[in-house]
Design a protein that fits this description.
Distance between the termini: 48 Å
CATH architecture of the largest domain: 3-Layer(aba) Sandwich
Number of domains: 2
Helix content: 25-40%
Strand order of the largest sheet: 5-4-3-6-7-9-8
Bound molecules: S-adenosylmethionine
CATH superfamily of the largest domain: Vaccinia Virus protein VP39
Strand content: 15-25%
CATH class of the largest domain: Alpha Beta
Number of helices: 6
Structural class: alpha/beta
Length: 224
């Protein structure tokens, strides 16, 4: 069902009528993603086609935090090369795809939105990389058995940050490398997050973020 609606949104039917375009990511032009020119219109069309309320199509934008993380991985492939990586709150799959292209041994992309998991699958194919996709909510679980956890713009609301930050802390404390991409939305409340890179560029992220032109990659350090 999601796959069909997604295909419709990409123009092969009438649900979203050409709302998605295979687009180069501004800060990581190595990657092309199916992105919406007008996410609000896409959202309305998908809801009309599904006949029910849906979450916003966050998967149809390349968020500023994800763009920064993807750029960082291309510039520092040693962070993920040969390692098992989890991309939490993957959305379009942007960060997962960057990790795979940078040489990760395995990449798991996790998002609870079924439309996102369809998008990740089609975006991975478009970029010719292999990514395992999971839709379980991992945030209440103990630990995921990986070497690196990446979270691009996963701190976009206080509510989600309150779940994501403890998940990231648990992993950091067990020796997992944790990197966060965040444009300063004000929910990065853990003082163990230190900037490792800063990027500045116009046209970062979604339309609502039009005033954002700076974004950081932060590394979490273990509790002393
Ligand atoms: C702002 S988008 C960021 C997407 C992508 N990382 C990027 O930077 O472009 C946040 C994503 O978090 C996902 N999300 C929300 N709650 C989640 C949860 N409990 N577990 C996994 N993903 C979640 C949403 O579905 C959405 O796709």
């Amino acid at each position: 069902m999601q796959r069909q609606l997604f295909a419709d949104a990409a123009g092969s039917g009438d649900a979203g009528a050409d709302q998605l375009r295979l687009t180069r990511v501004p800060l990581a032009p190595e990657i092309r993603l199916y992105l919406a020119e007008d996410p609000t219109l896409l959202w309305a069309r998908l809801e009309a086609a599904a006949g029910r309320r849906l979450p916003p199509p966050f998967w149809a934008s390349a968020w500023a935090g994800g763009q920064a993380l993807a750029r960082y991985l291309f510039d520092h492939p040693e962070v993920v090369a040969g390692r098992r990586v989890l991309d939490l709150a993957s959305g379009s799959g942007l960060v997962a795809i960057a990790a795979a292209m940078a040489g990760a041994a395995t990449v798991a992309a996790n998002d609870i939105d079924p439309y996102a998991t369809t998008a990740i699958s089609l975006n991975a194919i478009a970029n010719e990389v292999r990514v395992t996709i999971t839709r379980d909510d991992l945030l209440d679980e103990g630990l995921v058995d990986v070497d690196v956890v990446l979270a691009g713009d996963a701190l976009y609301s206080g509510e989600l940050a309150a779940q994501v930050l403890p998940f990231l802390s648990r992993h950091t404390d067990q020796g997992v490398r944790v990197l966060v991409g965040d444009p300063g939305r004000g929910h990065c409340t853990v003082d163990r997050l230190e900037p490792v890179a800063r990027y500045r560029r116009a046209t970062l992220g979604v339309a609502e973020d039009s005033l954002i032109d700076r974004v950081q990659v932060l590394a979490m350090s273990p509790r002393p």
